[in-house]
Amino acid sequence: MDNRKVALITGVTGQDGSYLSEFLIEKGYQVHGIIRRSSVDYRERIAHLEGHPQFHLHYGDMGDSMSLVKVVATVRPTEIYNLAAQSHVQVSFDAPEFTADVDATGVLRVLEAVRANHLEHECRIYQASTSELYGKVEEVPQNENTPFHPYSPYAVAKLYGFWIIKEYREAYNMFCCSGILFNHESERRGETFVTRKITLAAARIAQGKQEKLLLGNLSSLRDWGYAKDYVECMWLILQQPEPEDFVIATGEQHSVREFTYAAFKAAGIELRFEGEDMEEKGICVKGPAELVGKVLVEVSPDFYRPTDVVNLWGDPTKAKTKLGWNPSKTTFEQLVSIMVKHDMEKVAAEHVASVMRTNLAEYLEKGLVK
Ligand code: NAP
Ligand code: GDD
Q1: 289: left (phi over 0), alpha (psi -120 to 50) or beta
Q2: Is the CB of 327 under 6 A from ligand 1?
């Protein structure tokens, strides 16, 4: 029995990777993360952990088997959390082959890297599966027994990931599991996912930095939780006596329209929605005088998908009973409020920084600073 606590996280720079790193460091793990080279700085979410004695980074890529084999050989992890993915559903329609390589074959590469290093009976593996597997849903709400019906290149790639994990569990008796996670958001969420796009826009519009927010399908329904609460489940899944798959969700459903209303309200703007489909608009009915009566939200075909998943709603009963996890730790209202508060401060700080830049430019021009 290996008593070391050594975690390897792929996708460490992402939303979940950053929260999971903090969580595991707190639990006493040595945490190793795989990063890929980029021409711009993308390590913002983990910058505060760099230099921590329990936090280590290695270059690698989900498309490069050799790099994965080498990192696994160096680290000899006791747990792997495979979070790396091209995770944007709409982008998967534009880059389907890349998405398949990273999100499908990438999972196989991780499993084979473990086997190549003869760690298949020492290292437990968590796979970041997704509620997108339910896609064009066949049942509401969805649980571990609901049939899958993937409805995007992303979901089809993730379906391969789900099944190859199950296959290696059965074929080689490996401890590998999927967490079927429903949407989880946070102040670290990528800025093109709908919740963060909305909270940032609400903050910018409230502070006079943006005129309007353009969205796609306002009627789409999601089960949105808080990412910080969800990483605990990833760990709990790997601490069970037997490898099993779990649905992780709040059990509550809201539309994109409801999220938009709540986010603008938290930013001090009350909206009324009028019209239908492409003609629907969000009009300011209460808030700063200069915004009242203005159209602040409009629908644009640019944000519609060739096939869209519109009715996700998870049943977290198994996670509640077997993992002892609390799906209501952070409510929908608290999630919206955390994100809007963060973005109000971020936008205000951007404003200060841009004033400082303007002043600096002026001072440089006048020769006041060298
Ligand atoms: P995210 O913020 O988009 O992070 C994705 C991570 O994957 C980033 O660290 C990214 O690195 C890395 N990555 C992408 N391509 C890679 C490659 N070729 N090689 C190495 N690393 C690569 O995603 P997230 O929201 O944290 O989600 C984490 C995982 O959970 C993903 O697999 C996602 O599909 C899945 N999931 C997410 C949700 C959700 O609601 N958030 C729900 C269900 C499942 P860079 O920083 O270099 O781009
Ligand atoms: N991104 C985006 N932008 N989505 C919009 C917009 C918009 O302007 N307007 C409406 N939507 C709708 C989408 O059509 C979709 O139905 C819903 O809002 C949520 O979209 P995203 O926030 O992009 O997330 P997602 O549900 O497609 O995918 C996320 O959750 C999955 C779990 O269910 C990602 O994190 C995936 O990686 C994850 O697997």
Answers
A1: alpha
A2: no
b/e sequence 319-352, b meaning 16+ C-beta within 10 Å: beeebebebeebebeebbbbbbebbbeebeeeee
C-beta of residue 11 within 8 angstroms of C-beta of residue 83: yes
Q: Find the catalytic residue in 79, 120, 132, 185.
A: 132
Please state, in angstroms and as integers, the Cα–Cα distance from residue 37 to each residue in 57, 95, 214, 239, following that order.
Answer: 12, 20, 32, 32
Q: What is the pLDDT of residues 56-94, one digit of tens each?
A: 999 999 999 999 999 999 999 999 999 999 999 999 999
Question: Distance between terminal CA atoms of the chain?
Answer: 63
Is the whole-model pTM more than 0.85?
A: yes
> Of 175, 169, 182, 213, which Cα lies nearest the Cα of 79?
175
Tokens of 189: 């969420």
Could you tell me the CA-to-CA distances from 300 to 76, 281, 333 in Å, in that order? 49, 11, 26
The protein residue with its alpha carbon nearest to ligand 1, atom 43, reads 130
Question: Taking 60 as the threshold, does the pLDDT of residue 370 lie above it?
Answer: no
HEC string for 164-225: HHHHHHHHHCCCEEEEEECCEECCCCCCCCHHHHHHHHHHHHHCCCCCCEEECCCCCEECCE
Catalytic residue among 134, 151, 154, 230: 154
Q: Is 156 in the pocket of ligand 1 (CB under 6 A)?
A: no
Phi and psi based region of residue 275 (left: phi greater than 0; alpha: psi -120 to 50; beta: remaining)? left
CA distance 46 to 19: 9
Does the Cβ of 184 fall within 6 Å of ligand 1?
A: yes
Task: For residue range 139-180, list pLDDT tens digits in order.
Answer: 999 999 999 999 999 999 999 999 999 999 999 999 999 999
What is the atom index within ligand 2 of the atom nearest the CA of 214?
Answer: 8
**Partners of 178 in the β-ladder:** 127
